[in-house]
Amino acid sequence: MNRPVLELRNISKTFPGVKALDGVELQLYPGQVTALIGENGAGKSTLVKVLTGIYAPDGGDILIDDKPVTMQAATDAKRHGISAIHQEAVMFDELTVTENIFINNQSRNMFGLLDWKLMRTRAKTLLEYLDVNIDPDLPLRELSVAHKHLVSFAAALSINSNIVIMDEPTASLSHHEIQELYRLVRRLRDEGKAILFISHKFDEIFEICDRYTVFRDGQFVGAGEISDVTQDDLVAMMVGRTVNQIYPKIETEIGDTVMSVNGLSHPTEFDDIDFNLRKGEILGFYGLVGAGRSEVMQALFGLTRTSSGSMNLNDKPFKPRNPGDAIDQGLVYVPEDRQHQGTILTLPIFQNITLPQLGGLSRSGFIDMAREYDVARKYATRLQLKAASLSENVENLSGGNQQKVVIGKWLATNPNVIIVDEPTKGIDIGSKAAVHKFMGELVAQGLSVIMVSSELPEIMGMADRVIVMHEGRIVARFDRDDMTAEAIVTAATGAS
User: Per the database record, which ranges form the ABC transporter domain (predicted)?
Assistant: First the structure.
């Protein structure tokens, strides 16, 4: 085999409370497509950002053609012939196709002025290479989603790179468009380019890739030829870990059905969702990026309108017109993006906790601050919130304590059902254990929890039952006694 055109050795990257990459390695070879495989949170996105100069690694070596290089900025990646095609490229509808292609790679003439004639010519050549007939002078807003995607491809190829990263490139493509992408990948491979192909879909991996590298929990697990492994082998490498004390499951007596959902559908996000939730139960929802889990939860909370289906909560028809309606009927939602959707960072802790119930804490139009503090103190104590005082702004708290503020805010409304979407995303192990312990205490007290999580150990450690979604539909259901990591991941990838 030829020597690798790019090699990573012992690359590490740490963020506060999280070791995203822990001594990983990767080799990319000219004329080959290498799959980077791993669960959500395995470190794939962080690695892409290291390769494209967005993140500088804390340690380790990056070699291109056996020579050490540094990646301190996106311009370094470009200089070393690395380009990336992302799932959701940043593009500008009001600019032309040419302007979008060369927005980060502009050509200038001998006087230092933008050479639009050259860029239009190059844009036309790139689009012809992609076998797409698009006028380079058209505003991007006039193109279809598929054509916009191809423009992003042209932008990535405009730097004439030898190393091409494709991060979930088929996520928004139809079957026909995916086949066209495969043709393009094979063409790039046959031209000698080294391609890193990131996908959750095993059918794609076995269709288009020559080699594989597997990450798990920010660590390198293994690499080799695709022809030497099976799908089961890769699944086992992805999930090979055991549930430990971070997931302190409290056994509770599960009661009658509290909530039922029948045939719930949305025009674009999910279809025919059926499930029931019982008193004292943690019901887990698992799926890969784009599976539709969060979209279902947002519909339950009244954030989006459904096209069909019915729901019942506490033996009554449940059809919330808005989140306030859902809260009044006893259902609350802790969103995945706690900083932008769950809290107001510039307000103090006590005001965040009492936000949903200001009406009940007011007299004659004025907030009773003594009562407000009492409510906030009760839930801050119950959640073991760590802060200098309740007057401290939420933006100054750690990720784990911010999450506790969000949970406290909703618990103060005395709900029957609490939905937690990625409850421990981005928080340290100690805070994870505290959140899990508290979730167990909630169901022990009779509440019902729907937990959306991309972390298999969390799902398997905390859930009484697991529902698996793939491409907007429920594809599998598991009771606690019969769930296995391999079966859950296999269902989530859409594999048979």
Answer: 6-242, 252-496
| Residue 246, number of CB atoms within 10 A of its CB | 17
Task: State pLDDT tens for residues 170-185.
Answer: 766 666 777 888 888 9
Give me the residues paired with residue 19 across strands: 14
Instruction: Note whether 286 and 228 are same-domain residues.
Output: no
**Spatial distance between the Cα atoms of 168 and 176, rounded to a whole number of angstroms:** 16
For the chain, what is the radius of gyration of the CA atoms? 25
CB within 8 Å of 34: residues ≥ 6 apart: 26, 27, 28, 194, 195, 196, 197, 209, 210, 211, 212, 213
Q: What is the pLDDT of residues 290-317, one digit of tens each?
A: 789 999 999 999 999 899 999 999 999 9
Total-model pTM:
0.59
Residue 244, in any domain of the structure: no
Structural domain containing residue 176: 6-239
- Under a CB-based contact definition with an 8 Å cutoff, are residues 378 and 414 in contact? no
Q: Are residues 218 and 288 in the same domain?
A: no
* CATH number of domain containing 389: 3.40.50.300
